[in-house]
Design a protein that fits this description.
By secondary structure, the protein is an alpha+beta fold. The chain folds into three domains: 1-79 and 290-337, Uridine Diphospho-n-acetylenolpyruvylglucosamine Reductase, domain 2; 83-199, 2-Layer Sandwich (Uridine Diphospho-n-acetylenolpyruvylglucosamine Reductase, domain 3), CATH 3.30.465; 351-562, Immunoglobulin-like, CATH 2.60.40. 19% of the residues lie in helices and 30% in strands. Strands 25, 28, 29, 30, 31, 34, 35 and 36 form an eight-stranded antiparallel beta sheet that branches. The chain has a five-stranded antiparallel beta sheet with strand order 6-7-14-10-11. α2 runs antiparallel to α6 (192-208).
Length: 566
């Protein structure tokens, strides 16, 4: 196990029974509670660097942890609770926000579409990951974009249409990417009384069905719409109400709920689920899939009976060899999948370049309500492998893109210099610009590039925070030869060669920050951070800005990108 310093937000020897709705589970060797999205990256890489299993935990409202101790990292999203209205209809929420909170925020803002989430157990990250639904609502109907961190620790943005595949099914359920934030879209308004009435109906129905009488994860099995009968009705007709195995018991009020009566083990719950699944198949010809997600070490025969073996990993020790790891985000024996891969003749996964290594939403620096700009997205693409780039240092290696539709550019970037396209201009930051900062991982050295949609640009090298390198007091294009700029109808940006940024790469990684300065005190960060000075001086209140200026030059806060090789 690692000898490195463990961050204070990674706890040791935490009882999982105290962290989940079922009140079941062993002890986690490491329990990570990231305070920021950047911490999520570090938690994932902590597990990988120490070759231990990794699993994700939201509120635990749909998770059944094994009775066995978890000798790895449980990554909890409970502290990721940043949320704000970017516009009247776009709500940004980090993964740890409770579903009920989304309903309450929409009620307060008179926005239609989230009342069904009131009293729905769980957090929005897990809700999106599984495409949760109830009371006629489905989360796919209200999601605009999803922000994830992959197993390489790189950030991505996914459009809703590329994620949601159907009933309680998404591409994220098999990708092992961690959902860290969501952009919800609520285009319609509604009377607060109407929203409140719908919220009350949801709560009253849950109480009437005794959803919260005893610890459970709600519906144990998904509905199989090919059968045409809800799973709860199938088990009702089969007489399962009140059936028990050990301390696990089917609710007398809902035949698809398995409850913990106080002494249930994970094996009790899964054993009862296996009996129910087999009965539904034999007597109703209904092949049902678990909705509850078992996580950890389980008996392999029991996993097989519950349909869990396909995505599990074998485990053996001196006591037993018939156990499987299941429900993991990553296992040490697992090959890491990049966003795009191909299979070679040797059945080895090979990375296909170009490949996205960074995409994150621009959030308003001070999180001023209604001041968001979700129509612009920064993206960094690795064009070739590290090995190829090192051997061909003058060829394009990384591409920085600012993605914005050509028809919106004059509106979003209103302040343009009176100069010809492609010209290097000192003090370009006085206009509407997109910016990127590259920093050495362990030094204060960093380079700053700025660009307009018309390809005006400037670049400055720094040897310390706001301390320019010798010769850079008067910026000059001669320090940045062969800089390649481009623009098309969907984006504009620059291509960087390996030679240009080699001095900033260490351990196959580079630290970056993307920013926007659009004029009229409109400043944006990607990825966003909470400025400690803003915390001390309060955020926007009654349209009054914090008593601080936006400061992009905070190199210690930059995001670390893992550069990929073949």
């Amino acid at each position: 196990m690692t000898t490195q310093t463990i961050p204070s937000w990674i706890l040791e020897n935490v009882s999982l029974a105290k962290k989940t709705y079922y009140r079941i589970g062993g002890t986690a060797r490491y329990f990570a509670v990231p305070q920021t999205i950047a911490d999520v990256r570090e938690a994932i890489l902590f597990a990988r660097e120490n070759a231990v299993p990794l699993a994700f935990l939201g509120a635990g409202s749909n998770s059944l942890f094994s009775d066995e101790d978890f000798d790895g990292v449980i990554l909890s999203f409970e502290a990721l609770r940043c949320n704000h209205w970017e516009t009247e209809s776009v709500l940004y929420a980090e993964a740890g926000i409770e579903n009920t909170t989304i309903a309450e925020l929409c009620h307060k803002a008179s926005r239609k579409g989230a009342a069904w989430m009131f009293r729905l157990p769980g957090q929005v990250g897990a809700t999106v990951r599984m495409n949760a639904r109830c009371y006629g609502g489905e989360v796919s109907q209200i999601v605009h974009e999803i922000v994830t961190v992959d197993l390489n620790g790189n950030l991505h943005i996914h459009c809703a249409k590329d994620v949601f595949l159907g009933y309680k099914d998404t591409s994220l359920m098999t990708s092992s990417e961690a959902v860290v934030a969501v952009r919800f879209l609520f285009p319609e308004t509604e009377e607060k009384n109407t929203i409140a009435s719908a919220m009350n109906n949801c709560e009253n129905d849950r109480n009437a069905k005794h959803h919260f009488d005893a610890p459970s994860c709600g519906s144990t099995f998904k509905n199989n719409y090919e059968i045409g009968i809800p799973s709860g009705r199938i088990f009702d007709e089969l007489g399962f109400r009140g059936t028990s195995v050990g301390g696990a018991k089917v609710s007398v009020h809902h035949a698809n709920f398995i409850q913990n009566t106080g002494s249930a083990t994970a094996n009790d719950v899964l054993s009862l689920a296996a009996i129910m699944k087999q009965a539904a198949l034999e007597k109703k010809h209904a092949d049902l899939s678990l909705e509850v997600e078992p996580i950890g070490l389980f008996n392999s025969e029991l996993c097989q009976k519950c349909g869990l073996a396909e995505n599990s990993f074998s485990h053996s020790n001196t006591i037993s060899s018939n156990t499987l790891w299941t429900g993991l985000a990553w296992h040490p024996s697992q090959k890491i999948k990049t966003v795009q891969t191909i299979q070679t003749t040797q059945e080895m996964q090979t990375t296909v370049f170009p490949i996205e290594v960074f995409a994150a939403p621009f959030l308003e620096y001070f999180q001023k309500p209604g001041a968001g700009e979700h129509r612009v997205t920064p993206r960094i693409v690795q064009l070739v492998s590290l090995s190829y780039a090192a051997q061909n240092p003058n060829e394009p290696f990384l591409r920085w893109e600012t993605r914005v539709d050509n028809s919106l550019r004059s509106t979003i970037f209103p302040h343009m210099p009176q100069a010809k396209s492609g010209e290097f201009l000192n003090e370009l930051w006085n206009y509407s610009v997109s910016e990127i900062f590259f920093e050495h991982p362990h030094l204060t050295e960093y380079d700053e590039y700025e660009m307009t949609p018309e390809q005006h640009w400037i670049a400055i090298a720094h040897e310390g925070r706001r301390i320019r390198k010798p010769g850079h007091n008067k910026p000059s294009a001669t320090f940045f030869p062969n800089t390649q700029m481009w623009s098309n109808k969907n984006a504009f940006g620059m291509d960087f060669s390996y030679a240009q940024i080699q001095h900033l790469i260490q351990n196959n990684s580079i630290r970056v920050l993307c920013a926007l300065s659009l004029g009229q005190q409109r400043y944006y960060l990607s990825p966003h951070w909470k400025d400690n000075r803003v915390e001390a001086n309060s955020v926007w209140q009654d349209n009054i800005p914090p008593a601080v200026n936006a400061d992009f030059h905070q190199p210690q806060r930059l995001w670390r990108i893992s550069l990929l090789d073949v």
